[in-house]
Specification:
The structure is a single chain. The protein is built from 15 helices and eight strands. Strands 2-3-4-1-5 form a five-stranded parallel beta sheet, with helices on both faces. The protein has a three-stranded antiparallel beta sheet with strand order 6-8-7. The longest helix has 24 residues. It is globular. Bound molecules: adenosine-5'-triphosphate and magnesium ion (MG).
Length: 394
């Protein structure tokens, strides 16, 4: 079949030809944007889920929805080595300048810029060569205490008040939110708390690996009141079928029901895998309809490609000890697994494994769904580990 017309799009953040099974989360975001603009309270969204389930795709879609609802938007991706402040400052600056260009009276925009200058003074860094162009002095004391949990809420308040004055609203969308440290997460939570108390038109949509279990104490109880944590998971069979079949139909071709069933079984409904199987099955099939045999014949190739592209990049960043830990988890199956049981499997004392667990969490390879449990962040990673390291040596 014609490769150029292949509709599937395996790849990080690549919009799928059919965004299947996500209507209700998108509707939830639409309500959030509508309510915040109307100054009605609504919980912000933190979407969490494993690798390749479609979080980035949803975040991009939600940014489009926010823009269509009249929002000014900021979309950023957190990194292991970049602070929240450095990430946000250039965007907040851009928004304030956009607001300044909207006709209106009042001094809230100018104040917003002064508070941002104060904030930058507080974090004591130069963000590029911050040229403000407007002759405004920093508002001393507004957001420069150096304590992010105080300064960030003050900064957000000033920006949101400026947006309100110009009759608009601000949506901040953050991907890979698990990379923030606990102070940064807690500052974000405090900032959103202030937005809610003052009914200011600013909202947050985040996406990342599951983080809620890792939040502690006060932050956690705040977070539960201020955010919804929708779990983005694999697609149930009818949606997975739609994700494959509709794009093929739309291209004027066909696929047999048995072929669809086989792909669902192999992928367990994980969106990234659906795209990869769909893509290869299309290319492999001689003529329409794509048959069960076409799918079976591509499975080996797809698994090889997944190993090379999706799994291997993560595997290569691991130390030998980390690999051994993951291999022990894989020995026990898909998971989650008790940390004690993993230690037993390795014939090691559970206490000596603390550091390797911590570094695997930091690298985003595993997370703790509940106390004493460990799970892979990458779907089907146990199968990959057994392929990559066939023999398990204790
Ligand atoms: N609802 C969906 N239906 C079909 N395919 C989808 C759906 N959502 C995402 N995809 C596809 O899945 C793949 C992964 O999507 P995306 O990069 O958004 O995942 P992610 O959750 O952000 O992954 P990661 O945690 O690795 O960043 C892409 O190829 C995308 O086209
Ligand atoms: Mg992503």
């Amino acid at each position: 079949m014609d490769r150029i017309r292949n509709p599937f799009s395996p790849g990080a953040g690549s919009p799928p030809p059919e965004l299947a099974g996500r209507d209700s989360i998108l509707a939830q975001a639409q309500v959030l944007f509508g309510r915040i603009r109307a100054k009605r309270p609504e919980k912000s969204l933190l979407m969490t889920g494993l690798r390749g389930v479609g979080k980035t795709v949803l975040l991009n879609e939600m940014e489009r929805m926010a823009m269509a609802s009249g929002y000014r938007t900021i979309l950023v991706e957190a990194h292991e080595n970049k602070s929240l402040a450095i990430l946000l400052v250039p965007h907040l600056r851009r928004i304030l300048f956009e607001l300044d260009r909207i006709a209106g009276t009042g001094n809230k925009v100018k104040r917003g810029i002064a508070v941002l200058k104060s904030f930058i003074g507080g974090i004591k860094v130069t963000v590029g060569d911050v040229e403000f162009g407007l002759d405004i002095d920093p508002e001393r004391g507004a957001a420069d205490s150096g304590d992010l949990e105080v300064d960030l809420p003050n900064l957000f308040t000033a920006v949101a008040e400026a947006a309100e004055e110009r009759g608009t609203a601000v949506a901040i969308l953050i991907d890979e939110i698990q990379y923030f440290n606990s102070t940064e997460l807690s500052a974000l939570i405090m900032a959103m708390h202030k937005m809610q108390q003052r009914q200011l038109p600013m909202t947050l949509v985040g996406a990342g690996l599951p983080i809620l279990p890792g939040l502690a104490g006060e932050s956690k109880s705040y977070a539960e009141r201020l955010f919804n944590f929708p779990d983005i998971g694999p697609l149930p069979e009818p949606d997975a079928v739609k994700a494959l079949k509709d794009p093929i139909d739309a291209a004027g071709e066909a696929i047999e029901p048995s072929a669809l069933r086989e792909i669902f079984q192999m992928t367990k409904g994980y969106p990234y895998f659906l795209q990869e199987w769909g893509y290869q099955a299309w290319n492999h099939a001689g003529t329409s309809p794509i048959s069960l045999r076409d799918v079976s014949e591509t499975t080996e190739l797809v698994i090889r490609r997944l190993d090379e592209n999706f799994f291997r990049v993560r595997f290569d960043r691991l130390t030998p000890r980390e690999k051994q830990y993951l291999r022990a988890m894989a020995e026990l199956g898909p998971g989650p697994h008790r940390t004690a049981e993993i230690a037993d499997t390795m014939r090691a004392k559970i206490t000596t494994l603390g550091p390797v667990r911590a570094s695997l969490i930091k690298k985003g390879m595993v997370y703790s769904p509940s106390h004493g449990d460990m799970a892979f962040t990458v779907p089907l990673f146990d199968e990959f580990m057994r392929r990559a390291m066939p023999r398990f040596e204790r």
